[in-house]
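Narrative of accomplishments. A recurring question from our advisory board has been how the design workflow behaves on a single, concrete structure rather than in aggregate. To address it, we present the structure tokens for one chain from the evaluation set, followed by the sequence designed for it. No filtering or post-editing was applied between the two.
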């Protein structure tokens, strides 16, 4: 599939954006891509991981993603796009989408795993809010996990997160 195209498209769309730790934003989807590739994810999953924050954080629309990368990738990106300011709505949407395409569980796991690495940069006042959001999705993924890969990944991640939030 169009992995190279997704890579440069996402890199360009995130250009100029910085993460909380001041590195270029694109490092986030890039590391998710690397993580998922190691786990043997298929090309639609890899493309969607690279593109997963575009609709949320850049002027790129879902329509454009569908046109460029096809509906399969578009569906995964849509499933990763949150409903602004509505954590419960976002969780329900994610659950509904992931029941139609289980690959969303892996993309979300990679998202949570990668975000754990910048958690130390979150300001103390925002930490509680971030923690709530984070744990909401850990719980949801625990409930939705079925395969060996999903289960072992979420268990490992949940332990790491527990430790991080304790520090
Ligand atoms: Mn993300």
């Amino acid at each position: 599939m169009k992995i190279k195209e997704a890579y440069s498209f996402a890199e360009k769309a995130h250009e100029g954006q910085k993460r909380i730790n001041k590195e270029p934003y694109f490092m986030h989807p890039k590391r998710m891509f690397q993580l998922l590739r190691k786990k043997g994810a298929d090309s639609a999953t890899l493309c969607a991981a690279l593109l997963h924050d575009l609709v949320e954080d850049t002027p790129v629309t879902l329509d454009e993603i569908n046109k460029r990368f096809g509906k399969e990738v578009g569906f995964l990106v849509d499933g990763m796009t949150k409903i602004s300011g509505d954590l419960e709505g976002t969780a329900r949407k994610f659950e509904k989408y992931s029941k139609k395409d289980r690959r969303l569980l892996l993309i979300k796991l990679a998202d949570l795993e990668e975000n754990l690495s910048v958690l130390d940069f979150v300001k103390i006042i925002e930490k509680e809010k971030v923690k709530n959001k984070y744990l909401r999705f850990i719980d949801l993924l625990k409930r939705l996990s079925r395969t060996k890969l999903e289960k072992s990944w979420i268990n490992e991640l949940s332990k790491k997160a527990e430790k991080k939030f304790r520090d």
